[in-house]
Amino acid sequence: MQCDIGCEKTRIENIIRQGIWSSGTDGVVLGLSGGIDSAVVAALASASLGSERVSAFFLPSATTPPEDEADVCELCQMYGLELQIIPINGIIDAYRRMDGFVDEPHLVGNLMARTRMAILYYQANLRNRIVIGTSNRTEYLIGYCTKWGDNAADLQPILHLSKQDVYLLGAELGIPEAIMKKKPSAGLWEGQSDELEIGIPYADLDAALASLEENNWEAENEIQERVLALVRKSAHKRLPALSLAGSDPRAR
How many CB atoms lie within 10 A of CB 160? Predict the structure, then answer.
């Protein structure tokens, strides 16, 4: 973090308010997963805007663990958020009926992430609100996200924080213990774990990324080489679409 936790909380709440002011909208739409990242964003958005300006959605699939819904409901009760639950099973099943559909876990997982994105943006349009994202810096840098899926948002208030920083902030905010102790998982298939899928524990990821940034992205050991490979392979997820169009100064 750039400053202590109290200062960081204030900085994030300020940028959330700035995002609403600059967009001319009435609030934010937030997708809750039952995990630490979306829980921290829920707490910060509620403190920044008031719970009435935060529309919370839980979008479970057939592979979503039942405890996630219980944790989301507890979180929303804690912060006074009105929660809407919209299962996405029917939408995914409709895709499965397409000719040539390949029911492979990674493909279906990406499809679920993009389906959730479409629902959140529909709800944001309906309410004159913007979508607030829940991406952290660790996953952003290694590309652990679905392009135009869970990384799609109008405002990313914790994108500058490592996964370890998110946990520190969550502890300060009083996020429920069940969420704090839960193994990170996108729930994209049964038994899925973020750390198992990535192949590197978050603590090691954060340490490797910090060292790489300090050393001008020169790897010094095997873990750093693996992390650097992930960063390079996922660069397209962090860059605008390649085109021959020049930048428009009016969009700056």
Answer: 16
Nearest 5°: the CA angle 55, 156, 181 is 75
Residues in Cβ contact with 15 at an 8 Å cutoff, skipping those fewer than 6 apart: 155, 157
Task: Answer whether 180's CB lies under 8 Å from 36's CB.
Answer: yes
What is the CA 75 to chain-centroid distance, rounded?
A: 17
Work out the widest C-alpha separation in the chain, in whole angstroms: 54
Tokens representing 131?
A: 């979508």
The pLDDT tens digits for 136-195 are 999 999 999 999 999 999 999 999 999 999 999 999 999 999 999 998 887 776 777 888
pTM: predicted TM-score of the whole model, two decimal places: 0.93
d(CA 146, CA 113): 7
Q: How many residues does the chain have?
A: 252
Q: Are strands 28-32 and 54-58 parallel, antiparallel or unpaired?
A: parallel
Confirm if 129 and 28 have CB atoms less than 8 A apart: yes
Residue-wise pLDDT for 43-63, tens only, equals 999 999 999 999 999 999 999
**Which are the contacts of 228, defined by CB distance < 8 A and separation ≥ 6?**
212, 217, 219
* Domains of the chain in sequence order: 5-194 (3.40.50.620)
Task: Quote the CA–CA distance of 9 and 47 in Å, as a whole number.
Answer: 10
Alpha helices in the chain (DSSP H): 5-23, 36-49, 66-79, 89-96, 105-127, 137-142, 163-173, 177-180, 194-198, 202-214, 222-233, 235-238
